[in-house]
Amino acid sequence: MHHEDPHYPRAHLRPPAHWINDPNGLVFHDGAYHVFFQYNPGGVRHTDMHWGHARSHDLLHWDLLPLALAPLPDGEDADGVWSGNAVSLDARVVAFYAARRNDRWWQPVAGAVSDDGVRFNRMAELLVEQPPPDTVMFRDPYVWHDRDRWRMLVGAALADGRGAAVQYVSGDLQHWDYVGPFLAQHPTALPGGGNTEEGWECVQFASLAPDRGALVLSAWDPADGAAGTAVYLGEDCAETFEPHVLQRFDYGPDLYAPALLHAPDGRWLAWGWVWEARDEPRVGAPSAWTDEVGWAGMLSLPRELTLTEHGLHQAPAREIDRLRGRQRLEIGHAVALDEEVEIGRLGRCADLVATLGRTADGAGAAGLRLVMSADGREHLDIRLDAATGDLVVDREAASTDPRAKRGAWRVPTGVPAGGSVDIRAVIDHSVVEVFTSAGQALTMRFYPTGDAVWRLRAAGTGTGRAPLAVTAWDLNPLVIESGRRHLGTKESAS
Asked: What is the set of domains in the chain, with CATH numbers?
């Protein structure tokens, strides 16, 4: 099963088996971080959605608690307790979620309350029963407190082709008044390709500075489904949002549905769903590969979000530094670009920081190659593009299994000829999360087949010599323990 699966992560949060997707209900309550997530306790398909639950005091040691919420047969959520969020109020946790039934296109907003942070009781009535006029998609509530009222955003698509976050307000968390679209936009081009699409899921809002905030969304294409993530930076005008800048939330192919948590020390944290890039579609159609290993999906590393001169800045939460163990290697010098040079061995769970440079004439650039097979056929490349200065993460040759997805993705860093970029890459068996010093992020899955020792090489492109510096550490695993009741039994949820 999965513990023997070489692709199973060790430093990323997930239950021992089965399917997970969106992080939900992120909240700090009673001295602990609570992370809920979409979870199928009976298999590796995107169906029968429950809320799984994990709790931690330090983001490194996690307790897997009993299922928080399960679909009620013949109830408003009979076909799934779908995504939402939670707040801490007067010693209680109040959760909000999308109630799924297959006989309606929209998902009403439902609520549940816990007095102990573990066991939940549903509110008697739906909180938002009907979608607003002129909507054709409606799901995934996000609630936060603002001065003397509560505000709620719900992801939507409008009949005129715009994606939207629609807003409600409340004084008591039970009676909600519709305000209107907080932001609605026609599909808009994103840096690096793609766009914001006609539907927005999992809309989340972070107030990062007075009257300045980040509206995070997951773009949903009505024809193709989940498309990617984006963030609008701008001004919160209470009833509406004035966007100033549009950015990608993540430049990679394998992160979706980021969710936010406001930590007690003032930090904004985010987790995302890191899906599979194996032979099945992202929505979990039958797959012999995932059936065989018994698990699918994980949550990303927790990320700290801040505003800088470059816009939204993302970096691994500082707690991840405490997972660093033995230092594996350290080099720093200019390297010849026309040959591969062995740097050293690297563990399958590793944290590395690097500086990659371009030549002064723009004819070459430094890169790293993670070699994962004895013959060198399987390798993952992280390099600068000599012509553009883009950071490229390339999994085209990362697996000889034909079922593994391939391709290369770019982060536009703007590194000029003669310049360099600092990056951090956290590698965990079958996932890499790459961050630039400017705060850009790229998440990618890869599936090497061999059992060889992994090696890191300097592998630049072009001609000449370019700066290259690397320091790498082994990364210790998260401590993840099941609670007294086994996670995955439907009887453990209300």
From this structure: 19-319+479-492 (2.115.10.20), 324-475 (2.60.120.560)
